[in-house]
Specification:
Elements lengths: L1 H16 L5 E4 L2 H8 L7 E4 L9 E5 L1 H6 L10 E5 L6 H11 L4 E4 L6 H10 L4 E4 L3 H6 L4 H22 L8 H14 L4 E2 L4 E4 L20 E6 L1 E3 L2 E2 L2 E6 L6 H20 L6 H14 L11 E4 L3 E7 L12 E4 L2 E4 L3 E4 L2 E4 L9 E2 L11
Parallel strand pairs: 1-5, 3-4, 5-6
Antiparallel strand pairs: 1-2, 2-3, 7-10, 8-9, 9-12, 10-11, 13-14, 15-18, 16-17, 18-19
Helix pairs in contact: 7-8, 9-10
Amino acid sequence: MSEAHAVRRARLRARRAAAGDAALLVSRPANVWYLTGAAPSGAVLLVLPGQSAPDADVLVVPPRGALAGGAPPEADDALRLLPLTDDSDPALVAAGLAADAGVTSLEVEEHHLTVARHRELAARAAGLKLGDLDCAVEHQRLVKDEEEIAALRTAAEITDRALGELLESILVGRTERHLALELERRLIDHGAEGAAFPTSVATGSHAGVPGHRPTDRRVEEGDFLTVRMGARYRGYRCQIGRTFVIGSRPADWQIDLYDLVFTAQRAAREALAPGTEYRAVDQAARSVLDAAGHGAALGPVTGHGVGLEIGEDPRLSPVAMGRLDPCVPVTVEPGVHLPGRGGVRIDDTLVVRPSTDGGPELLTITTKELLAL
């Protein structure tokens, strides 16, 4: 992957060169990871303009970062690692390196820096004109290369396996909290670096609540059981959500509600195609729920991008502007919660593909049949 990271930095440098000969200071951890393959705690990346110097890109790492962060980048001839031995701010050190290199402008990620840190940069790097790198790296991260998608695919395989094993165990009488901890342990057992986000297990009246935090409520016969989880692999994160029924067979109202959410989810999945407006994907699911009187239950988005973070762009919402590109991984995750009764959520991670390539690629393949466990 080291060559891929060097290529990403070169693309970023070339895109920003049109705006002037400025050095770039990247501080947001996910962006540092994307451009170097590592994100030691507190590290920043300096990308100098031009391509003549073999060490034009410098990863500045504080002492605590070398201990608390991830592994150092893989061998990368175009990247110099600068470990600090004192408590200097890596951003200030990087700014000094830029000034020493003779550049006059430095673009920083203002959306990530605190006001105090930005002021200190301006004061300590008085010879440099500070500009805003804005979300240039996030925009570049939007479309994934095949190595990134392969990492997401592996994360999804790990997630499916962990969830599948849980479904084969006895669930009645176990608490939401215990089941969530077991799922996260299984993710690691199967090769994940950890959970992509806090695992949610929701039973009975809690089922279907987005972002539910597991409690000590125990699984009971007749419950809906909703699980939302995902693995992190090589930094990349996927998401799956499934709803099951505990007992010999679901009640009629549970079947009806599940079929409704499944229909909405399928409509949004089928809308995923290059060139489709983000809001059109949202509308595909929302119109199904609206017609059944549950449109408000969907919440602000039908899905979002995934990658090095859960909740990346694009946002699949009624007000989102933009169109889908090929090789953009997104979630589709409609749900309905009935207060006091429970609810249904069905989440998948997919990659946008053109119809000539078979349409959207489904990464999370655990069955969406309403299973009675």
